[in-house]
């Protein structure tokens, strides 16, 4: 087991890649703290982990709210006694997020609050505990859009993921001397319900996107979580400040 007895916080673990992460981390022996805004979804993840014989606990949490994060982190330390891994997965991509010229200010603020401030707050309250331990691994989920423009823009989302990449590098330099590694994963398009609903209905959109994908398929949540397991485990002791594109090669594609 690659994560035996490691206490791992996974934000947004009630659905999508976060839920897959909770299940796969628990299978590797991790004790999973499910940090989730949607309590019903979070409980469903906890139930699935336990049914599979793993350890998980729900901590209802809005990563964009300081009090909520502070309380959930304190309760995690009370219950599990330590925090080995902070997996900042929660992120949003509202439909109203378009170009800078037509994105409502409230939508811009919401995206920044969850995708960037959420990681800031989680780090603010988890890193002091990791400093006490002189050990920890922070995994930030950015996106391939941090590096590529798109003619169908989502400017708030794109800017937020660029910020995640930059913050990861700063954390990596500041805290590695005290035993805390920080890395980011930049997923390409992954088969989550959102993407599938859209592409299953629109064959042309699917064809255009797959034409640009050298691997010939969209990613699966497991493709991302396999990388995260490496970053969470002690196998990655010398991996710090890495910005890992896990995208089938799409960011290498000029045309
Ligand atoms: N799906 C993709 O193709 C793709 C590609 C690149 C990057 N990403 C990134 O990967 C991460 C996971 O994406 P996904 O597709 O699995 O998302 P998803 O929408 O399926 O799941 C996100 C989870 O986060 C939770 N959440 C939302 N806001 C929250 C908040 N304020 N506090 C706590 N929890 C909150 C949601 O309730 C949900 O359970 C996100 O950061 C996303 O930006 C996704």
From TrEMBL:
Pfam families: adh_short_C2. Keywords: Oxidoreductase. The keyword Nucleotide-binding does not apply. It is an enzyme of class 1 (oxidoreductase). Its EC number is 1.1.1.-. Signal peptide: none annotated. InterPro entries: NAD(P)-bd_dom_sf (IPR036291), SDR_fam (IPR002347). GO terms for molecular function: oxidoreductase activity. PANTHER family: 3-OXOACYL-[ACYL-CARRIER-PROTEIN] REDUCTASE FABG, SHORT-CHAIN DEHYDROGENASES/REDUCTASES FAMILY MEMBER. Belongs to the short-chain dehydrogenases/reductases (SDR) family. NCBIfam families: PRK07231.1. This is SDR family NAD(P)-dependent oxidoreductase. It comes from Effusibacillus consociatus.
